[in-house]
């Protein structure tokens, strides 16, 4: 495992260029999202007194973090892995926001270890959202369940005006 | 809805408990709906055979990405119309399995005054039906003073605070 950790060290600090979400903040997508999290606040739906100070209808606080989906016409990872029994169903756009794959951890299971979230502004309907991410840290820890790698990815999400919407640090736990 | 509440910094007491947010019981339909909404298809949330045989898990897991939505909702509801759910941090220390009902809780543990507004620190977590804690963490909610000015929007953190929770 220490050998793998050595192979992972060059990844620490690597960042993406700015990636722009393939779709703007769409009202229908906001509705599906709000219903899925069972938080159907009127501020996510239509103009109202309570979202006037936000400039009209907005999306839930974490919506921007899930906007980086596969653009139309790009290769389909689900079809590409249709015969791969080890494919876990995770698509890169939502696991590490465009960062290079941690090849030394290929085949390791992935669990969500936790997050730090700093929230500044709601995304408005119609906003274009972009993100810059980096591998903030990667560590190897011995746990009661064996050695595990803790991968911390920091992502900063902004709107088309350059206003910071939200900053996250997600910890991914990778284990055999 | 509690979002219509107007909460001021002076009104908050250390030790005060936030209204518990209940979600579930969360079945496979909930998890599939969430997977579809965010367009991520991690099999451990809907493919039981994959979860158990491939990833050696005890069953289908409730998504951590869904649980963190509940944490933000707890803070946003409590912050009310004039406050701001500034920060949240939490660890997924234990798994929540499909079928569980979750209770998201919070308790005020500290208050800090800044020139333009106050910040309330909240201990929080997620309990299942068996009162097992899975997601311990903390939150920071900014609240205006009763006779103070409104919070800045977009939110501007207090000068002394630079980094994440």
Q: Could you please say which CATH topology of the domain at 2-26 and 62-143 in chain B applies here?
A: Thiol Ester Dehydrase, Chain A
Helix/strand/pairing category of chain B:
alpha+beta
Tell me what the CATH architecture of chain A is: Roll
The CATH class assignment of chain A is: Alpha Beta
Commentary on this structure:
The complex is a heterodimer of chains A (176) and B (165). Chain A is α+β, with helices and mostly antiparallel strands. Chain A has a single domain (2-175), classed as Thiol Ester Dehydrase, Chain A (Roll), CATH 3.10.129. Chain A is built from 4 helices and 5 strands. Chain A has helices spanning 2-8, 27-36, 77-80, 92-95, and strands at residues 19-20, 109-119, 130-143, 146-158, 164-175. The longest helix of chain A has 10 residues, at 27-36. The termini of chain A are close together. The model of chain A has no long low-confidence stretch (mean pLDDT 92). Chain B has a domain at 2-26 and 62-143: Thiol Ester Dehydrase, Chain A, CATH 3.10.129. Chain B has 165 residues and is of the alpha+beta class. A 5-stranded antiparallel sheet of chain B has the order 1-3-4-5-2, covered by helices on one side. Helices cover 21% and strands 24% of the residues of chain B. In chain B, strand 3 (102-113) and strand 4 form a beta hairpin. Classes of the chains: A alpha+beta (176), B alpha+beta (165).
């Amino acid at each position: 495992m220490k050998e793998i950790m050595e192979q992972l060290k060059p990844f620490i600090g690597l960042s993406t260029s700015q990636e722009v979400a393939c779709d703007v903040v769409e009202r229908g997508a906001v509705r599906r999202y709000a219903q899925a999290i069972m938080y159907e606040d009127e501020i996510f739906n239509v103009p109202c007194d309570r979202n006037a100070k936000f400039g009209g209808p907005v999306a839930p606080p974490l919506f921007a973090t899930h906007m980086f989906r596969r653009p139309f016409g790009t290769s389909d990872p689900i079809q590409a892995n249709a015969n791969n029994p080890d494919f876990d169903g995770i698509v890169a756009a939502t696991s590490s926001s465009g960062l290079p794959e941690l090849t030394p951890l290929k085949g390791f299971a992935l669990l969500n270890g936790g997050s730090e979230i700093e929230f500044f502004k709601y995304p408005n309907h119609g906003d274009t959202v972009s993100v810059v991410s980096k591998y903030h840290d990667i560590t190897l820890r011995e746990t009661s369940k064996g050695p595990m790698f803790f991968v911390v990815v920091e992502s900063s999400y902004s709107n088309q005006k350059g206003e910071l919407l939200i900053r996250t640090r997600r910890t991914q736990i990778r284990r055999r | 809805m509690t979002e219509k509440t107007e909460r001021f910094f002076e009104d908050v007491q250390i030790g005060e408990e936030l209204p518990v947010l209940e979600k579930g019981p969360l079945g496979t339909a909930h998890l599939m709906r969430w997977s579809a909404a965010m367009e991520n298809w991690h099999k451990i949330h809907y493919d039981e055979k994959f979860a158990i045989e491939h990833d050696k898990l005890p069953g289908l897991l409730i998504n951590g990405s869904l649980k963190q939505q509940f944490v933000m909702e707890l803070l946003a509801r409590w912050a009310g119309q004039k406050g701001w759910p500034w920060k949240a941090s939490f660890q997924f220390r234990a798994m929540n399995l499909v079928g569980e009902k979750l209770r998201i809780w919070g308790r005020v543990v500290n208050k800090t005054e800044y020139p333009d507004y106050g910040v309330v620190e909240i201990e929080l977590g997620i309990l299942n039906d068996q009162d097992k804690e899975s997601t311990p963490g903390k939150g920071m909610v900014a609240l205006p003073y009763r006779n103070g000015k409104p919070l800045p929007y977009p939110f501007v953190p207090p000068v002394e605070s630079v980094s994440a929770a």
